[in-house]
Amino acid sequence: MQPGGLGPGGTVPPPGTAVGAPFGAWVTESQACVDVTDLDPAPSPDEVYRYFRTLPLPALSTRQQPPGNALVNLPVIFFTDSPTTQTFTLDIRGFRVVITATATGFTWHTGDGTDLTSTDPGAPYPNQTVTHDYRAGTFTASLTATWTATFTVDGGPAQQVPGATTTDGPPVTFAVLQAHAVLTDPYR
Question: What span, in angstroms and rounded, lies between the C-alpha atoms of 120 and 88?
């Protein structure tokens, strides 16, 4: 119907015609292709972020050196050897979305009230990058990983997911011992 309730060619619908009921002949207004993308747009970055936050990202393990007990004034080395990149393929409203998640931030909770942050997963000796000195006692340390991601839709260009999420790894408990020097007589 045209503005003013008129049909094609300015005709008036017959009396008693229900609203929305067709009347008159079909008229071609134009011939063109219609882009249906607007009817079902690809997932937006915000929509992908909502899915990203629910993915089963791994809880990264906390490793320390020396393994087991440590000594006062000898730095404890922290690192994780868990995978820090994960790829997930999802179907979001019929679109194939590939999300590549990467651990980009690491917060080491040392168990004595100190948090150490880094942008790398640490490394074992001799390439250690995350260390901490302790006083004597028993401590429980853990790792919180911050994950960011990129995504593609149906093989298109990579886009940044607009947000991050975190996972908390399992804790590890160890003792820090005080070493005592003992003098001995080498001639006895």
Answer: 22
**pTM of the shown model:** 0.75
Contacts of 120 (CB under 8 A, 6+ apart): 106, 129
For residue 180, name the pLDDT band (cuts at 50, 70, 90).
Answer: confident
Task: Please write the tens of the pLDDT for every residue from 76-106.
Answer: 999 999 999 999 999 999 999 999 999 999 9
Q: For residue range 5-60, list pLDDT tens digits in order.
A: 565 566 777 788 787 777 777 767 677 776 666 678 999 999 999 999 999 999 99
Q: Is residue 17 part of a domain?
A: no
Domain for residue 19, yes or no? no
Domain that holds residue 77: 59-182
In a domain, 79, yes or no: yes
- Asked whether residue 124 is domain-assigned, the answer is yes
- In this prediction, residues 144-172 reach a mean pLDDT of 97
Total domains in the chain come to 1
Q: Please report, for the domain that includes residue 108, its CATH number.
A: 2.60.40.10
Q: Provide φ and ψ at 64, rounded to 5°.
A: -135, 150
